[in-house]
Amino acid sequence: MIFDPQHRKSNRSARIGMALFRMSQAIKKVTQAESNALGFSPVQIQALLFTYYTRSDVATIGNFANSIGTTHVTAVKIVNGLVRQGLITKTQKPEDRRVTLLCLTEEGKETVSKLKHWGHSLEEALHPISDEALANFELGLGAIISAMEKRGHLVVSEPCLGCIHFCPNTGDADAPHYCKLIQKYLSHESSLQACPEHTSSFEI
Ligand code: SF4
């Protein structure tokens, strides 16, 4: 077990597992401090950023719940708090009325513009580390994230570039890119938004 120091001595996976656990504790602490300073909870900030960066037709409560690894009920409570503050609106998806789409109000967009530096403590903590060490770390971390995603522990939302379903520049000027998964043409702007269905074409 990863908390047993003797076990860690002879087991690299346990050492890395413990390191990740410690990192998650530190990340929780710094994001909480940054969020407090802005007057929101970390999950409220994540809801605002999710709504801003996710393609509008997939910015649903369900996808938000998956993105932060929580239940639908908890995600609804988080979103409702932001609806009451006038930052987010909820609408039913026209094609499926059981699905709730999230959208930022003008005030919500203004709030997001003030969140630009949220997470900066994490980025700053990495500044003293050499670029070479970070490049190796990025590769290893990518492999860990991919393994956790395959086990269903997390969802990685990314823009279209690098997705196996992406067929760029096959449409017209208004919607130049095609997605084989949803079988729709997308505007260039939509293809730059995060998509929870992104499936990386890079094998790690
Ligand atoms: S599944 Fe892939 S190609 Fe399709 S919209 Fe999502 S990211 Fe883009």
Automatic annotation (TrEMBL):
Signal peptide: none annotated. One of its GO terms (molecular function) is DNA binding. It comes from the Bacteria. GO terms for biological process: response to stress. Residues 13-146 form the HTH marR-type domain. The keyword Metal-binding does not apply. Pfam families: MarR_2. Keywords: DNA-binding, Transcription, Transcription regulation. The keyword 4Fe-4S does not apply. SMART domains: HTH_MARR (SM00347). This is DNA-binding transcriptional regulator, MarR family. The lineage of its organism: Bacteria, Bacillati, Bacillota, Bacilli, Bacillales.
